[in-house]
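Page 37, continued from 36.
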């Protein structure tokens, strides 16, 4: 059986948070959970981003929230469409919000807060469009 740190109910809370966060933006948000990360989490997030084909959205406005549970590592990686428009520290508040929750032992709450923050921040630069479609599924990916 595959490793899963969350119950089905908790996974549903995360996927619902992704769907809610994407309601006001054309941006795409994905959560990836690892058990361990023995390398740089940002490099791991970047590799997963491409492996999961998140770089194929029309506006190149996808973002992955990468969390390594056992190693307590977090990374946020956004596509070039985002990076071309936003300030360098764009993801810092989201990262800080997530890690503050994680340090208190609130992993689920930290992920949901990060997803919500990402959606709010993406709305500023990528508001929802009339013909917007969900280009990536909202399911959690694991490794």
């Amino acid at each position: 059986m595959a490793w899963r740190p969350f119950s089905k109910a908790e996974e549903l809370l995360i996927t619902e948070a992704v769907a809610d966060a994407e309601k006001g933006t054309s941006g795409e948000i994905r959560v990836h959970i690892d058990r361990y990360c023995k390398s740089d989490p940002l490099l791991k997030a970047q590799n997963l981003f491409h492996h999961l084909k998140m770089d194929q959205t029309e506006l190149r406005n996808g973002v992955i929230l990468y969390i390594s549970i056992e190693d307590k590592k977090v990374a946020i990686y956004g596509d070039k469409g985002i990076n071309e428009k936003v300030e360098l520290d764009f993801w810092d508040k989201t990262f800080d919000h997530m890690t503050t929750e994680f340090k208190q032992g609130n992993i689920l709450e930290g992920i949901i807060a990060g997803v919500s923050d990402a959606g709010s921040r993406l709305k500023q630069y990528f508001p929802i469009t009339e013909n917007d479609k969900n280009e990536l599924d909202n399911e959690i990916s694991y490794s």
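The domain at 26-126 is CATH 3.10.310.50 (Diaminopimelate Epimerase; Chain A, domain 1). Flag for discussion at group meeting. The beta strands are 28-34, 62-68, 73-78, 141-142.
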